[in-house]
């Protein structure tokens, strides 16, 4: 592979984690609409389709009808009221999820201008692990990383040391 450049640290780390576990011969259903990371995956020869923007809390038909062998959910579960139902309806046997972690020193993200761009959940790692376990998934690998900023203040300093993102690779153990 040629030397890939990424616009964000999380894209680079997410791609490296995905590449470690998922073959390019697999078909991926990425939960959420096409986005800049979708373009990176396609540019690197991953076979990826996205959901169409439907509200996955109410409509899981694209998940149920997908023949993909892997489901990915990159920073989407925090926007859902009910990720339990989504996880239960996945037919694929492989799953890669990344979520922002709950930070004790900052409240959950809430856009003041976009009613959909809000975090209903910001997980602690054990909460996502438990959710996966309850829906029949076994975590095979996991990683956390920080998201530092170049601002001044106590919270920006804490972001240099406190993990912000959590990614897991899991396989289905029961249905």
Spatial extent as radius of gyration:
16 Å
Strand content: 15-25%
Tally of individual helices: 6
The percentage helix is: 25-40%
Order of helices and strands: HEHEHEHEHEHE
**What is the CATH class designation?**
Alpha Beta
Count of individual beta strands? 6
| Separation, N- and C-terminal Cα atoms | 36 Å
Named CATH architecture? 3-Layer(aba) Sandwich
Organism: Olleya sediminilitoris
GO molecular function: methyltransferase activity
Keywords: Methyltransferase, Transferase
Protein name: Methyltransferase
How would you explain this protein's 3D organization?
The protein is of the alpha/beta class and 175 residues long. The protein has a single domain (9-172), classed as Vaccinia Virus protein VP39 (Rossmann fold, 3-Layer(aba) Sandwich). Helix content is 27%, strand content 21%. It has helices at residues 9-21, 36-43, 61-64, 83-89, 125-134, 154-159, and strands at 27-30, 47-50, 70-74, 94-100, 137-145, 165-172. The chain has a 6-stranded mixed sheet, sandwiched between helices. Helix 4 links the parallel strand 3 and strand 4. The protein is globular, with a radius of gyration of 16 Å. The relative contact order is 0.17.
List keywords for this structure.
175 residues, alpha/beta, Rossmann fold, 6-stranded mixed beta sheet, 6 strands, transferase
In short:
Keywords: Methyltransferase, Transferase. This protein has 175 residues and is α/β, with parallel strands linked by helices.
Layout of SSEs?
Layout: H1 9-21, E1 27-30, H2 36-43, E2 47-50, H3 61-64, E3 70-74, H4 83-89, E4 94-100, H5 125-134, E5 137-145, H6 154-159, E6 165-172
Parallel strand pairs: 1-2, 1-3, 3-4
Antiparallel strand pairs: 4-6, 5-6
């Amino acid at each position: 592979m040629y030397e890939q450049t990424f616009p964000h640290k999380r894209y680079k780390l997410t791609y490296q984690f995905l590449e470690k576990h998922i073959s390019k011969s697999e078909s991926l259903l990425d939960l959420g609409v096409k986005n800049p990371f979708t373009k990176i995956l396609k540019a690197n020869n991953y076979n990826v389709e996205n959901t169409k923007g439907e509200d996955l809390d109410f409509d899981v038909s694209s998940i149920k009808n997908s023949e993909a062998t892997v489901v990915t959910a990159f920073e989407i579960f925090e926007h859902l009221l009910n990720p339990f139902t989504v996880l239960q309806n996945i037919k694929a046997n492989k799953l890669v999820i990344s979520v922002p972690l709950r930070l004790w020193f900052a409240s959950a993200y809430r856009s003041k201008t976009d009613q959909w761009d809000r975090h209903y959940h910001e997980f602690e790692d054990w909460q996502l692990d438990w959710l996966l376990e309850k829906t029949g998934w076994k975590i095979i690998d996991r990683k956390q990383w920080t998201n530092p900023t170049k601002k001044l203040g106590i919270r920006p300093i804490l972001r240099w040391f406190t993990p912000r993102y959590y990614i897991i690779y899991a396989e289905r153990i029961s249905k």
